[in-house]
Amino acid sequence: MRAWTGPEIPTLPAVGPPVALHDTASGEKVVTTPEGPARLYVCGITPYDATHLGHANTYIAFDLLNRAWRTAGHDVRFVQNVTDVDDPLLERATKVGVDWVELAERETELFRQDMQALRVLPPAAFVGAVESIPLVIELIQRLQAAGAVYQVEQDLYFSVSADPAFGDESGYDRETMLRFFGERGGDPDRAGKKDPLDCVVWRGERPDEPAWDSPFGRGRPGWHIECAAIALEHLGAATMDVQAGGSDLIFPHHEMCAGHAQVATGAPYARAYAHAGMVGYDGEKMSKSRGNLVFVSALRNSDIDPMAIRLALLRHHYRDDWEWTDEILWSAVDDVDRWRRAFALGAGAAAEPVVSEVLSALADDLDAPRATSAIDRWVDATLGGEGRLADNSDPDAAATLLLVVDAALGLSF
Prior knowledge:
- The chain is an alpha/beta fold.
- The chain has a domain at 20-281: HUPs (Rossmann fold, 3-Layer(aba) Sandwich), CATH 3.40.50.620.
- Helix content is 41%, strand content 15%.
- The protein has helices at residues 53-71, 87-96, 100-117, 133-145, 174-183, 223-234, 250-265, 296-301, 306-314, 326-344, 352-363, 368-383, 397-407; strands at residues 20-23, 28-31, 38-42, 76-82, 125-128, 149-152, 155-158, 199-204, 219-221, 240-246, 270-276, 279-281, 284-285, 322-323.
- The strands form 4 sheets. It has a 5-stranded parallel sheet, with helices on both faces.
- Helix 4 crosses helix 6.
- The model has no long low-confidence stretch (mean pLDDT 95).
């Protein structure tokens, strides 16, 4: 599967500091120490609808990580999946009366357009669930050899007890796990399972559902094992530096992915787990079931500058839960105009302290609000005359900071 076309990243006049990130598993901020390229896996969309601002918030958050690593001097190996066959997609296709393949391809293309407009750096490997089926089959066979897979009727299940580290990623107690498992696509009450938390890795063929041949009979993969198989194949190492996604993926998705990979390889799945907060609208988390989605494409089609959308998201720390409002958007539209006017002046207040502040903020758990505030202060000083008209004017300030906001924050003016 092809990704989108990414922007060129300019070379900065300074090297960023080592990147520290809040690790969900330990609950602490850890300094990332990539060996070779920094390896990042960010779970992708299930393409049954358009990209909403909750999606964009997550992908922009970890685009900042990609950029912070690069400014710190690391190569980055970024991989992302597309769950282009799964129950929500099939249900949506049936409801609206379209072919599920057509729906998946259409919404995946819209996602590419949204990510390109928002200047998110593309993954080195953008892999669909369907094209990963051979990888999934191979991983299931490895789990079978380890004694970690068993059959219930026509389906295969992963035994969570096979992974001694199961539960370490989320830190949740069993009651919480069972609740989230039932709410997020699991089947804790199915008869015949050894443990209510065991998850399906191969779903046997059902009438009117897509299915593929396998040594286990015709069927399709479970959700969690797709990401584990894609990550192990395309990141090029058993242990990645960061597994990332929205906080609703902490359990069961990331816990199960880790379990599959750790049993198969005997190595930790990730050195750190990073999760973005949820974006709400009208008092609730944005979700299809609640019907309170704000779509990136709808904003773009309303002539909203994508840089204003990106800046509005950058004003919030990636780990925070927060609520989208029209006021947030219009404030960002005004801010983009102010920034453009300041950059157009050429000379301005001193740039060097701002460069240092921006790079330090992003290296400190991707603190985009602090970084954008540093630019705000420079804009205020420059538009107010300090710098351009004063003796300490920096004649190259705008040119320098345009490079920084592009490379580090992903904003283009």
